[in-house]
Amino acid sequence: MRHHNSLMHELLKLVPWSKCEASVDKYAADRGVRTLDSKSHLVALLHAQLSGAASLREIVATMASQATRLYHLGVRAPKRSTLADANASRPAALFADLFNDLLPQAHRGLRKASKEAIRLVDATSISLSSLSKDWASYEAHGCAAKLHVVFDPGAQTPVHFAVTPARTNDITAAKAMPIEAGRTYVFDLGYYDFGWWAELIAKDCRFVTRLKRNTPTRLVAERPVAEEGAILADRVVRLPERLAYSRKNPCACDLREIHVRLDTGKVLRIVSNDLEAPADEIAELYRTRWQIELFFRWVKQTLKIGKFIGASENAIRIQIAVALIAYLLLRMAHALQYAVESLLTFTRLVRANLMHFKSFHQLAEPRSPTPICANQLELAIC
């Protein structure tokens, strides 16, 4: 009789285990461990994310009920206390490294051909319980953490992430992130720092963001715009030469200021260092920023980031990293099959059939094998 792997087994085949083992050695993550090694820990947390388990007891109970099928994965159901200890003590950097190791593999299959690589930068707040007050206390909003993400809309995947307490300013986290030379960065007012803009320009990057209403500019040239269009003004400008306390502005170069009227009537002051592209193209680039908001919504609601199985900083970092790893695995698995077009539907079917002996192609009735557009992300939520 022909052997069939479980759906969970098929997903785990996409994990670069050799690189994972190298990271385990790098951080000595299995030193002194007797029962729950790093691989078993990762599988348990992935099982929790993909099955929708929301507590340590639920993870242990659901995995114990599938003990026979877990045997084929080379792992066993953990004990609740053992899993809690691993979340608190195993280095979160191990799982962040695995995310980074998985990214090139994900991009090869998902990257949409385009003339340029766009990077959307944003952050989202995640509420935490009062048990996390020792590291995530924030007077304005209670205990909370922030997930900072650099997102590639062409592949619909994050390319970098960081987790900080919610009191950390967005621009502080952005300055610690690597800048990819030659990319186009799109971001909002949370990253209003002329010094960081100058760093982007020095790396030959294009940026698109908004100007604050009270930021003065000096007009260099006025460009014509179409009458009765959404573009109200297209100008070449310069920012103030001096900042507060007589500091010299590090972003002392010609910039593009474009005024755009939204459907609501609100007017945005968009600024970019691109002096050549049409104004409507720059305005459209700023509109793509909405895709990272949709990504945050998808991850929070579908992978249940927001209900944590640990309260320590290390446990929170591990769970967020594993949730993003699960997202990459789902995206890659979805791209490998043609039976289910919607990523959300595919995720729901994976959840319902996670330990069943079937392949990705057997989750639903086959559809015509048309290529999946990596730029589309189904975000309908029940």
Detailed description of the structure:
With 382 residues, the protein is of the alpha+beta class. Among the domains are: 7-95 and 309-362, no CATH class; 188-288, no CATH class. The chain contains 14 helices and 9 strands. A 9-stranded mixed sheet has the order 3-2-1-4-5-9-8-7-6, sandwiched between helices. The two termini are 40 Å apart.
Record the SSE blueprint.
Blueprint: H1 7-12, H2 17-27, H3 38-51, H4 56-64, H5 67-71, H6 80-89, H7 92-110, E1 118-127, H8 133-136, E2 144-152, E3 157-165, H9 170-176, E4 184-186, H10 194-202, E5 206-210, E6 218-223, E7 231-238, E8 255-261, E9 267-272, H11 279-287, H12 290-302, H13 313-336, H14 343-352
Parallel strand pairs: 1-4, 4-5
Antiparallel strand pairs: 1-2, 2-3, 5-9, 6-7, 7-8, 8-9
Helix pairs in contact: 2-7, 3-4, 3-13, 6-13, 7-13
